[in-house]
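Researcher: Good morning. I'm working through a list of sequences from a screen, and I'd like to move beyond sequence-only analysis. For each chain I'm collecting a predicted structure so we can compare shapes side by side. This is the next one on the list. No need for commentary yet; just the structure.
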Amino acid sequence: MNTNTIRWGIIATGNIANKFATGLKELPDAELVGVASRSLDKARQFAKEFAVPKAYGSYEELAQDSDIDAIYIGTPHPYHLANVLLCLEHGKAILCEKPLAVNSKEANLMIEKAREKQLFLMEALWTRHLPVWVQIRKWLDQGLIGEIRLLTADFSFLSNTNDPQHRRYNPELAGGALLDIGIYPLALAYDIFKEEPEEVQSTFHPFHTGVDESSAYLLRYANGAIASLTSSFAGQGSMEAVITGTKGTIRVPFFWKAQSASVQLSGEDVQHHSFPYPATGLQCQASTMMECLRAGKLESELMPHSESLRLIGRMDSLRQSWGLTYPYD
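Model: Good morning. Structure tokens for this chain:
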């Protein structure tokens, strides 16, 4: 990959694809040249809104476009496997929306194919690339709040629909809070503690379709640290992450999309820090990916394949403990 502008394509035209396209405009070294939908009319509408030169009525046409270097996949997660394999077969670098796959079996197939083709693949867990978390990782590495003893993180909101066919609740679409939003607090725990927990306890409350409407996960690590994590579609939660150490605490409101953090060291006043980003912030992960492509890397150190496999493996085991299965399992 050369150092010139990297040319992007987008698969899907839904809300997350809109946010990605909006963010991509903030990167002067990125160019959005193609969009694909299963509906040509939708692709053309998206292309008109974002001034994209090419609109395709099939994903394969986009994957075959030789003018495209990298593809962002914004389809619902049950379709990721087919979409990723298609794009890899046509030699494209891929940024695939989280969760990378429905289960470990699918994730391994994607990663094996990417390695076989010597192509870049990264799960689009955008939180990890935001400026605030880049800084928080530095603070933690420097020991600012001492030894980390406790992480609490919540991603819960009242769903605007109870439609059993909606992707949040439909088991045929791998619905449930865990894969949709629980991945954020889980990924945060993996980012902070850098290791597998020694003990995991969890519980869930099912929607009437059988998927988890609400779920909670308690992780204990070898040094005694604990992560207490929650996700739910049933009501508004704190939407906050709190990292407690032996010397102080870091609070991060709306942690998955955060633009600020507060630090309170023992015996000192709270210090408030702002880390704004323009537009939607989804461009941060695209920027990370483009740096990797220019460096000739096949995966990102911020979100490597091993991390995606650890995350989906943990979610597999949680679902197994609840007796929650999908047709894809």
